[in-house]
Amino acid sequence: MKRRLNIACAIAHRPKLIIMDEPTVGIDPHSRNYILNSVRKLNEMGCTIIYTSHYMEEVEEICTRVAIVDHGKIIAEGTKEQLVATITDVKEIRIELKKGNGKLAEILRGIPGVRSVDMLEQTVRVFCDLEVDNLGLILKKLIDHDADIRSVEEQEPNLETVFLTLTGRTLRD
């Protein structure tokens, strides 16, 4: 409730710029959703918001431009897509099968946008160009060759991946 009150006081005079420093730290999920929705609405009303957070999923959800800061210096900035492009242009599609089949890897290698395919037991890992949407074609090829699919997961790089790659860190004390 204190965070909500702070936000209400900050926007009562309809400012053109609001600076929010980790507004969702240590709050319950309902209040977090309320704050994120409020940030979106304020931005839609024309307010510029500088939003600092360690929660990359929040940043991905609400920010149009992102600056990654490490040791007090901006080390990268741009849209989510621009930042992801600085570290990779590949996405991974991971497909779990009920039964492995080594021939499937060779079949998938010929699909446009596929860079490489790894097969380890029942898991097929397909590495594709990030901008190519070929998941439907990959699944069609597998189904056409009687693959019994258990699950499919498309893993695109996110801002957390970007941050960890650019800062060279996994965890900090």
Structural class based on helices, strands and sheet pairing: alpha+beta
Tell me the total number of β-strands: 8
Average pLDDT level: 87
Could you say what the CATH architecture of the largest domain is? Answer: 2-Layer Sandwich
The whole-angstrom Rg is 21 Å
User: Strand sequence of the main sheet, in spatial order?
Assistant: 6-7-5-8
- N- to C-terminal distance: 30 Å
Give unreliable regions as ranges: none
The first-level CATH class of the largest domain is given as Alpha Beta
Portion in strands: 25-35%
Textual characterization of the structure:
With 173 residues, the protein is an alpha+beta fold. The protein has two domains: 2-64, Rossmann fold (3-Layer(aba) Sandwich), CATH 3.40.50; 89-156, Alpha-Beta Plaits (2-Layer Sandwich). The chain has seven helices and eight strands, in the order H-E-H-E-H-E-E-H-E-H-E-E-H-E-H. It has helices at 2-11, 29-44, 56-62, 80-87, 103-109, 135-144, 159-167; strands spanning 17-21, 48-52, 66-70, 73-78, 90-97, 114-120, 123-129, 149-155. Strands 6-7-5-8 form a four-stranded antiparallel sheet, with helices on one face. It has a two-stranded parallel sheet with strand order 1-2. A two-stranded antiparallel ribbon has the order 3-4. Helix 4 (80-87) crosses helix 7. The longest helix has 16 residues, at 29-44. It is elongated.
